[in-house]
């Protein structure tokens, strides 16, 4: 399949994709701050550079985009139809890197949380943040936000 935009435009579009301070990440940070949690961002000394680190609670939280980090079964986890081999390899590396980061953090005694981008969309955001806050205050070792809209659902049904 041929790209619908020229190389320069595609390059400009891809360069605009941010790795930090994304909309879901800032939304979650504001919700946690309002709830009284204080944290550090992108701790470079920790494996995987977690997006949010609550050191006093030994909790490291990753905010994953469903597309880039391959949220299994998610409606927003699509695979481009052009350059399939490239995307397949890229996604495999992302998933493996995520797995290794979580394993390394757990080996160091950290609790790990993964919040998927889809869980921070309306109308699911409040439920997801409440569940995350409960996990932060608990002694649970891991947290992963729920799948909110399955890829197999009909287009007219938005998981509500």
Whole-number mean pLDDT: 90
Give me the secondary-structure category. Answer: alpha/beta
Please compute the radius of gyration using only Cα atoms.
17 Å
Which strand-content bin applies to the residues? 5-15%
Estimated helix fraction = 25-40%
| Total beta strands | 5
Shape: globular
Order of adjacent strands in the largest pleated sheet: 1-2-3-4-5
Count of DSSP-assigned helices: 5
Care to describe what's here?
The chain is α/β, with parallel strands linked by helices and 160 residues long. It is 39% helix and 12% strand. It has helices spanning 7-15, 23-34, 66-69, 84-107, 125-137; strands at 40-41, 52-54, 59-64, 111-116, 142-144. A 5-stranded mixed β-sheet has the order 1-2-3-4-5, sandwiched between helices. The protein is globular. The model is unreliable at 154-160 (pLDDT under 50).
Identify the notable features of this structure and list them briefly.
disordered C terminus, alpha/beta, five-stranded mixed β-sheet, 39% helix, 5 helices, 160 residues, globular
Describe how the helices and strands are arranged:
Blueprint: H1 7-15, H2 23-34, E1 40-41, E2 52-54, E3 59-64, H3 66-69, H4 84-107, E4 111-116, H5 125-137, E5 142-144
Parallel strand pairs: 3-4, 4-5
Antiparallel strand pairs: 1-2, 2-3
